[in-house]
Amino acid sequence: MNETVRLQKFIADCGVASRRKAEEFIAAGKVKVNGHIAEIGEKVDPRHDSVIFCGKKLTHVSGSYRYIMLYKPRGYVTTMSDELDRKCVAELVEDVGARVYPVGRLDRDSEGLLLLTNDGRFANSVTHPSHHISKSYRVSVRPRITDDQITVLTSSMMIDGRETYPADVRVVSDEDDKSVLEVILYEGRNRQIRRLCEAAGLETVRLKRTAIGQLTLGHLRPGEYRELTKDEVSLLKRQSGRY
């Protein structure tokens, strides 16, 4: 009996992109299955079906998974290529020796901890909103924050038609014209912190992701990366509740 999987999962397991990005590739007509243009929702048998992405046949990479922690600098987009010729995080991990892709995202003007892998199941377990793996950020805002503005930041808001899970916010320090905050998210929606700050009438001066779950950025400097240890990978897998 054939064992089929969703096409986007197979693409992710091959180390090409996350499942979400894979769906975008499928919708754009960049994927073929057994000679025909693939469709969203299609299933494939990895043992027998031929899957072609941008002219190259995909092969499952089971047994050779890589897990990378990168300090993404500001000014880089979280993608492996960019049609606008902007700087991409791919440039920072060219010597990894494997085709890895970002786990989640950090927008161009943000910095800090970014994971990259070729393990599609791991990537999905870390990023899926239902798993509520915390992501911690150090955020500088102007002007100095008020109690009412903290209430706005810790409230739910609608993003892309869905209500967000409330964030935790702690004031780290105050100055005359700005505040430094620790913000903890439990789902990581698109530009959620910047949207919350905008709703509160605050300017986001700097945004740095410092931790994912119990995994912290440590002493990495902007542009540097390192391999995760086996214990760190196991910890994130346990936190996701899917292993």
What does this structure look like?
Strands 7, 8, 9, 10, 13, 14, 15, 16 and 17 form a nine-stranded mixed beta sheet that branches. The relative contact order is 0.16. It is elongated, with a radius of gyration of 19 Å. The protein has helices at residues 7-13, 19-27, 120-127, 147-153, 192-199, 230-240; strands spanning 5-6, 31-33, 36-37, 43-44, 51-53, 56-57, 67-72, 101-103, 111-117, 135-142, 158-159, 162-163, 168-174, 179-185, 203-212, 215-216, 225-227. It is built from six helices and 17 strands. The chain is α+β, with helices and mostly antiparallel strands. It is 21% helix and 29% strand. A hairpin with a 4-residue loop joins strand 13 and strand 14 (179-185).
The rounded distance between the terminal residues' Cα atoms is 26 Å
List the total number of helices. 6
Determine the fraction of residues in helical runs and give it as a percent range: 10-25%
Class computed from helices, strands and strand pairing: alpha+beta
Characterize the biggest β-sheet: 9 strands, mixed
Low-confidence stretches: none
Order of helices and strands: EHHEEEEEEEEHEHEEEEHEEEH
What is the residue-mean pLDDT, rounded to a whole number?
A: 89
Number of strands: 17
The 3D shape can be described as elongated
Per DSSP, what share of the residues sits in E-state strands of 2 or more residues? 25-35%
